[in-house]
């Protein structure tokens, strides 16, 4: 037996797939008839509708509910089901015997008992195999390897398990034989549990109602309600009796026992190696077991005085397991040797073998049939009565021979909606394959399906919503039922022919003549599938067509067998599984049986397959077997239809049903007669088909009625059979639905038979029988005549077409006649048929020939240059085509004359070519004559090649003799043209010269290309030598020309370098960079290039160093902008107002815009100095206007955060603008003393000067640092605009320094400075006083409570002693100026201070001027208190964030090597920004936090708001 479980499934070939056009798709049945000759050979086909045809899904999803069927996969396959049936029978046999079946393992796989039994029977049976020692052959046929002594092992298993069952089936009463020893290599037997126990099934069987016929018997019982007597034990019980071995005398007396060595019977069959059931299990206290109906013999002993001691009163009682006796007690009792009161009671207990009633203490009562047997009469005899249930040999044999139950699907107990079923189906598939459902390959599902179907061990259960009535739940297609309002698009789908509700009732469909709505045939059925749910091998009812449409979901896999192989498939299935067909002869009509396509193909049955995807149709043809399964969750709809070509098939199907005694869905005779009664409603092809069927029907009816008359039946009466229900007019013999006639009996009114079974009606005499008929024999020919008149027109037309196409030796028809036949077919509405297709093909062929002939003849009359010339071979083929068509073509004669003329010219041209070179002068004349004919002759090309030969040779001589005027491509074209000219020695020589020239040119091109692309550049001298050598080649070489052009550019570049370096001034950096860029791109090695690169790199290095010196981190300014004065500081177009827009767009002003100079002016040092001086004046005037403007609009000033200044306000000393102290970097008063130095009252030296970020553009390095940059600049042989600007800035700073020194040296200011220094010294001495020290210490130990409500703790975590000390000093500061200066001196100092602030340089004189100005003013206590409060808030925020402000201060002081004026002691200032940009970037981060909460500043001067 082929073990399909171990073999991979091989997919059958694919079925035909058709993709109709929209024009073809308009006529559904016509298109199906068109593809039928191809598709019918496969049995099934797939149709893909046009892409735009997408009908809407019309089912009401919410109200749709159904109950699916239960499918156990391994019960579907025929061979697997036979195996399972056999295993169930043998398991039942051992269960009756009181033992459980354990299937052994052989060679690491479960032993196939069915195959073993089948092979043993095929080899002749047990005895011949043992006698001839052929068990090794049995093992070989089972597929086991040889050389392991497995034959003996199989024999032992056969004797132990199968042979007793076989003997009972054959009628013998011996069921046991001696136990054989266990082999060492034999694995532990596996207890057989029926396959309904789920392994990976999706639906567990219900605890109340089991789903399968095997599950009913084999479902595990409730442990509290189960009968321990029926439970199996894996080991024999200790109470099992020790059965004695039979004696030699017993064996000699019984030859059967001697032969089989069977010596055990009943429930204890020793020697078989089977596990007897444990009979000694006791129930729990209080449990009342449910026992089978038993016959219990109760004993009562008399205790009355009259009775004799020991008298027994016996009562026989039939009772259920309500007896308080436990089930472990025997259900039958042995009669004791007692005295009975009646003879009848004694006669009941007699042995069925010896017919005696003695030895009643050894008389056994069968629990199945109540027969009695002596223990010593059994074969073999029993030594003692068995315990538990016991069956006699007759009952065991009857149970073994019982036929299997009829197989079918059961309905599930749960009702599903589409959503709930889809969730269950998707979850099952995802869990089974352990991957998302849409990622499972269809090939994997197909192989797994057939593996499960052929598996005995794995029992997977799925559910299938099949045969759901669309009339009850609604169709998936839109319908014009009046229940819902449809859109115009939905109406088009509702009335379309491909709508499965419309297709069966189309005019060309036979089913439209049946009035009843036959569910499944005329009314579609719906199918909701899940993975592995299957539809088994079957053919449609009445062998009709079927069409299936998959609305949505995963694919459906189909398998099909053509109708020509239907009987072959049936024969293969009956041959391989005869057991199934013995119990169910019409098994293939039940749709419950599968067989592996590979098995069918192995037996010669042609099988095809296809995967039906959503939106595709599958058509099955008449009597084409088909089956398949679903790949996953999907929704499909199917219906039947019948066309005219089906009628003969339908008649044969009725004959087949009659032999099988199968019920008909409708009466075929009634359908034929109904169509024959109204022939005007039939189209011609259908009328012709009905006429043929009606003719056969009338002939058969005459024959049957004549036979009935010969039987002696003379009575008859008319009966309107169409008005009777089908069950009242069915033949009681063959179940055929009668219509034309039937035989009935007056004495047996319930009987009715068709005229094929008149002998099976009853035993009444023919005189009592009578004929019930629908039409008389005179009416039937009249109906046939009407059909004939309708059908003859089609036959006549068909004959005309056949004669016109096949010719039959007669003259050809005109094209007009063929078109007239086509028009007649359209007028009379003939459906698509073979003659019509041939006619259309003939017309198309004739029209094609006429069109091509007209084209050729038209070309012969036109100019050759304006027409397409036909070849001589094509002309010959065209003439042959026209001669073979079935119609007259008028242009044939002209084409034949043209063909004759072309043949004459071809022969003349061939003669001229053979006479070369003598006929060279005639070539041109012959060519002109040939070209005059609009036919391309083969000799013309040869003549043209000879004529082109001379022209080509002349062109080659010109190209080789002239200088380098031809390109390399032109030379290659000449060489390629040589293939089209006639061969000659001159041509070959010219070819060789051209090839050599091209090779030389290519070598020089490669050499020039290497020079152009080489990483190592070559000097100009080498390149010049290469160019000179290449000039001698008479070909234009592109790479050589490019190399020559590069050499010219190199010379020009050298001249530019020499010109720049020999000028009056150093070259500008931009000029050098341009020259370096050009020089790097040249493929020439330039000695000056390295020197220029070094100069450019040195200039860039200097510029980078200057940028690091001046520019802040992330500054928006260029170096030149910082070095130059800000001339537009107060203008509308200045950077102060445009900064935000340029920052957002990434735009910065170029160096040209910074000074307002052109690119040429930047090369002139005088222009740069002049522009710098003008910028100084504009900058000062602009800042003065800005100061005045900011001072005048003080009430309307807005801080960078966008709010009006209200508290903690700071004013910039330079631009006089107002800011929140927490919104901008502010000065720190604690920077003027160390961390452990106490503050003093010298308040004018405190770092209280505030310059905003908009006024400080750079780091402001010291003058010494700038001078070192100037020294490095003098060493550069390159001019930079930044260098010129730096020189101007240095001169301006030194000029201001000289002026400041002169002002500070004036008597008034000098004396004021001296007085200020003396006062400072006195105040420092005062700070050393112990009293002042104690006061300061007390202030430190008692910090001042501030206005914000915060106080400092004593542990110092939040204490700020330096700020507290400074705040304590504020009340002690005198409210008067320290110095008194005249207005003139003060104005002079203020002007000097303003100019110093405009400088981007740090000078010591600036601090002196600021101290004098500050000391000459009244101390601003509020300003100092504001600065202290700002610094306090900042420190508090830093401490909350875990940052040490002192460490940051130290790190900042180490990093800051530039400008650190006393007025701006904070970390380096951030990039210059306008107020609106600072508001956008610094304050929007945390608008919710109050400004009093403080702010923290990053290292680059940016602010982080709380």
Automatic annotation (TrEMBL):
According to the UniProt record, where is the region Disordered? 184-256, 1440-1506
Pfam families found in the cross-reference section: ARID, JmjC, JmjN, KDM5_C-hel, PHD, PLU-1, zf-C5HC2
Q: Keywords in UniProt for this one?
A: Chromatin regulator, Coiled coil, Dioxygenase, Iron, Metal-binding, Nucleus, Oxidoreductase, Repeat, Zinc, Zinc-finger
Q: What class of enzyme is it?
A: oxidoreductase
Q: Which reaction does it catalyse?
A: N(6),N(6),N(6)-trimethyl-L-lysyl(4)-[histone H3] + 3 2-oxoglutarate + 3 O2 = L-lysyl(4)-[histone H3] + 3 formaldehyde + 3 succinate + 3 CO2
Spell out the Basic and acidic residues composition-biased ranges.
Answer: 184-194, 1440-1458, 1465-1494
| A GO-annotated cellular component | chromatin
UniProt protein name: [histone H3]-trimethyl-L-lysine(4) demethylase
What gene makes this protein?
Answer: kdm5c.S
């Amino acid at each position: 037996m082929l073990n399909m479980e171990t073999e991979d499934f091989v997919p059958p070939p694919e079925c035909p797939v058709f993709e109709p056009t929209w024009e073809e798709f308009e006529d559904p049945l016509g298109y199906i008839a068109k593809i039928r000759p191809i598709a019918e050979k496969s049995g099934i086909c797939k149709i893909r509708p046009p892409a735009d045809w997408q009908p809407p899904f019309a089912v009401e999803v919410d109200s749709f509910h159904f109950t699916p069927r239960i499918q156990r996969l391994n019960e579907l396959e025929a061979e697997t089901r036979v195996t399972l049936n056999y295993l169930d029978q043998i398991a039942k046999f051992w269960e009756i015997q009181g033992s459980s079946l354990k299937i052994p393992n052989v060679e690491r796989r479960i032993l196939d008992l069915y195959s073993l039994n089948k092979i043993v029977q095929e080899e002749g049976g047990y005895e011949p195999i043992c006698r001839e020692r052929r068990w090794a052959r049995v093992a070989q046929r089972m597929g086991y390897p040889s050389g392991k002594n497995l034959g003996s092992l199989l024999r032992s298993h056969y004797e132990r398990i199968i042979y007793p069952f076989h003997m009972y089936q054959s009628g013998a009463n011996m069921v046991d034989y001696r136990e054989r020893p266990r082999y060492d290599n034999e694995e532990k037997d596996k207890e057989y549990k029926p396959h309904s126990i789920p392994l990976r099934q999706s639906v567990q069987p219900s605890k109340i109602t089991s789903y399968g016929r095997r599950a009913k018997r084999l479902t595990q019982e409730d442990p509290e309600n189960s009968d321990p007597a029926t439970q199996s034990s894996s080991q024999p019980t200790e109470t099992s009796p020790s059965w004695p071995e039979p004696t030699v005398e017993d064996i000699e007396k019984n030859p059967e026992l001697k032969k089989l060595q069977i010596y055990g019977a009943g429930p204890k069959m020793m020697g078989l190696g089977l596990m007897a059931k444990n009979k000694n299990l006791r129930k729990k206290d209080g449990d009342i077991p449910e026992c089978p109906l038993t016959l219990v013999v109760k004993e009562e002993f008399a205790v009355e005085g009259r009775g004799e001691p020991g008298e027994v009163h016996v009562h026989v009682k039939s009772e259920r397991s309500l007896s308080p006796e436990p089930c472990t007690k025997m259900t039958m009792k042995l009669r004791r040797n007692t005295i009975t009161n009646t003879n009848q009671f004694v006669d009941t207990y007699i042995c069925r073998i010896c017919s005696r009633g003695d030895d009643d203490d050894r008389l056994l009562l069968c629990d199945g049939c109540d027969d009695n047997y002596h223990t010593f009469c059994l074969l073999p005899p029993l030594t003692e009565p068995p315990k538990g249930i016991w069956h006699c040999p007759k009952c065991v044999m009857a149970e073994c021979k019982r036929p299997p139950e009829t197989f079918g699907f059961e309905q599930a107990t749960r009702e599903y909606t589409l959503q709930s079923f889809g969730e269950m189906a998707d979850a099952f598939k995802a869990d089974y394959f352990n991957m998302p459902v849409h990622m499972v390959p269809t090939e994997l599902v197909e192989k797994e399906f057939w593996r499960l179907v052929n598996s005995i061990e794995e029992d997977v259960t799925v559910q299938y919503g099949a045969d759901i009535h669309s009339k009850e739940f609604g169709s998936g297609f839109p319908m014009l039922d009046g229940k819902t309002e449809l859109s115009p698009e939905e109406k088009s789908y509702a009335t379309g022919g491909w709508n499965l509700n419309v297709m069966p009732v189309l005019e060309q469909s036979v089913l439209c003549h049946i009035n009843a709505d036959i569910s499944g045939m005329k009314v579609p059925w719906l199918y909701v599938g899940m993975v592995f749910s299957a539809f088994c091998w079957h053919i449609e009812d009445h062998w009709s067509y079927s069409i299936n449409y998959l609305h949505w979901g995963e694919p459906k896999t189909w398998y099909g067998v053509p109708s020509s192989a239907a009987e072959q498939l049936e024969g293969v299935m009956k041959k391989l599984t005869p057991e199934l067909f013995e119990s169910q002869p019409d098994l293939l009509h039940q749709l419950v049986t599968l067989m592996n396509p590979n098995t069918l193909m192995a037996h010669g049955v042609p099988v095809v397959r296809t995967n039906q995807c959503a939106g595709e149709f599958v058509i099955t043809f008449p009597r084409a077997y088909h089956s398949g399964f679903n790949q996953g969750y999907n929704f499909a709809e199917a219906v039947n239809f019948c066309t005219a070509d089906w009628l003969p098939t339908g008649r044969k199907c009725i004959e087949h049903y009659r032999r099988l005694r199968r019920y008909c869905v409708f009466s075929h005779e009634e359908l034929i007669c109904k169509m024959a009664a109204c022939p005007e409603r039939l189209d011609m092809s259908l009328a012709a088909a009905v006429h043929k069927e009606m003719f056969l029907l009338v002939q058969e009816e005459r024959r049957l009625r004549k036979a009935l008359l010969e039987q002696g039946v003379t009575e008859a009466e008319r009966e309107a059979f169409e008005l009777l229900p089908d069950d009242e007019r069915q033949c009681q013999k063959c179940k055929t639905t009668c219509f034309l006639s039937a035989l009935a009996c007056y004495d047996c009114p319930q009987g009715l038979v068709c005229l094929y079974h008149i002998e099976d009606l009853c035993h009444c005499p023919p005189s009592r029988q009578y004929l019930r008929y629908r039409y008389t024999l005179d009416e039937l020919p009249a109906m046939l005549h009407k059909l004939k008149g309708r059908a003859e027109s089609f036959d006549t037309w068909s004959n005309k077409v056949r004669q016109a196409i096949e010719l039959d030796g007669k003259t050809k028809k005109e094209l007009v006649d063929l078109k007239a036949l086509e028009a007649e077919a359209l007028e009379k509405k003939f459906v698509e048929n073979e003659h019509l297709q041939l006619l259309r093909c003939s017309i198309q062929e004739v029209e094609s020939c006429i069109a091509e002939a007209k084209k050729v003849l038209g070309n012969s009359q036109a100019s050759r240059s304006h027409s397409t010339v036909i070849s001589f071979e094509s002309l010959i083929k065209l003439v042959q085509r026209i001669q073979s068509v079935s119609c007259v073509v008028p242009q044939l004669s002209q084409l034949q004359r043209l063909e004759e003329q072309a043949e004459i010219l071809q022969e003349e041209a061939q003669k001229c070519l053979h006479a070369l070179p003598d006929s060279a002068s005639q070539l041109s004349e012959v060519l002109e004559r040939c070209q005059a004919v609009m036919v391309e002759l083969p000799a013309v090309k040869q003549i043209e090649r000879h004529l082109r030969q001379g022209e080509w040779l002349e062109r080659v001589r010109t190209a080789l003799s002239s200088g380098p005027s031809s390109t390399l491509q032109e030379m290659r074209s000449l060489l390629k043209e040589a293939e089209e000219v006639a061969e000659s020695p001159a041509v070959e020589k010219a070819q060789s010269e051209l090839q050599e020239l091209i090779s030389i040119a290519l070598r020089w091109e490669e050499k020039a290309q290497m020079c152009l692309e080489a990483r190592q550049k070559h000097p100009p001298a080498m390149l010049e030598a290469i160019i000179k050598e290449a000039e001698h080649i008479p070909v234009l070489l592109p790479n050589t020309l490019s190399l020559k052009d590069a050499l010219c550019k190199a010379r020009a570049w050298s001249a530019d370098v020499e010109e720049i370096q020999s000028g009056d001034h150093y070259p500008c950096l931009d000029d050098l960079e341009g020259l370096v860029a050009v020089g790097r791109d040249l493929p020439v090695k330039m000695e000056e290039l390295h020197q220029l690169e070094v100069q450019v790199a040195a200039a860039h290095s200097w510029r980078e160093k200057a940028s690091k010196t001046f520019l802040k981190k992330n500054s928006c300014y260029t170096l030149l902008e910082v070095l130059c004065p800000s001339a537009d500081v107060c203008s509308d177009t200045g950077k102060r107002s445009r900064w935000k827009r340029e920052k957002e767009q990434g735009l910065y002003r170029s160096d040209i815009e910074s000074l307002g100079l052109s690119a040429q002016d930047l090369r002139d040092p005088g222009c740069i100095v002049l522009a710098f001086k003008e910028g100084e004046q504009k900058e000062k005037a602009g800042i003065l206007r800005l100061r005045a403007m900011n001072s005048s609009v003080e009430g309307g000033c807005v801080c960078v955060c966008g709010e009006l200044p209200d508290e903690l306000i700071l004013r910039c000393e330079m631009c006089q603008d107002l800011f929140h102290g927490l919104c901008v970097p502010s000065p720190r008063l604690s920077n003027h003393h160390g961390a452990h130095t106490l503050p003093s009252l010298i308040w004018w030296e405190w770092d209280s000067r505030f310059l905003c970020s908009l006024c400080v553009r750079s780091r402001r390095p010291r003058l010494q640092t700038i001078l070192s940059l100037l020294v490095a600049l003098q060493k550069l042989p390159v001019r930079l605009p930044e260098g010129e600007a730096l020189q101007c800035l240095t001169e301006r700073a030194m000029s201001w320094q000289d002026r400041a020194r002169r002002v500070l040296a004036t008597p008034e200011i000098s004396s004021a400075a001296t007085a200020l220094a003396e006062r400072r010294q006195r105040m420092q001495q005062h700070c050393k006083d112990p009293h002042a020290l104690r006061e300061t210490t007390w202030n430190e130990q008692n910090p001042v409570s501030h206005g914000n409500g915060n106080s400092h703790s004593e542990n110092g975590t939040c204490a700020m002693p330096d700020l507290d000390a400074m705040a304590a000093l504020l009340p002690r500061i005198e409210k008067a100026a320290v110095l008194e200066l005249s207005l003139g001196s003060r104005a002079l100092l203020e002007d000097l201070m303003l100019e110093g602030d405009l400088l981007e340089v740090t000078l010591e004189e600036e601090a002196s001027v600021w101290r004098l100005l500050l000391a000459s003013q009244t101390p601003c206590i509020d300003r100092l208190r504001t600065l202290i409060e700002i610094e306090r808030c900042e420190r508090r925020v830093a401490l909350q964030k875990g940052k040490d402000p002192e460490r940051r201060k130290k790190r900042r002081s180490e990093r800051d090597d530039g400008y650190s004026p006393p007025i701006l002691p904070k970390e380096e200032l951030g990039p210059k920004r306008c107020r609106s940009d600072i508001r956008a970037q610094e304050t929007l981060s945390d608008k919710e936090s109050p400004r009093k909460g403080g702010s923290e500043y990053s290292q680059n001067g940016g602010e982080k708001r709380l």
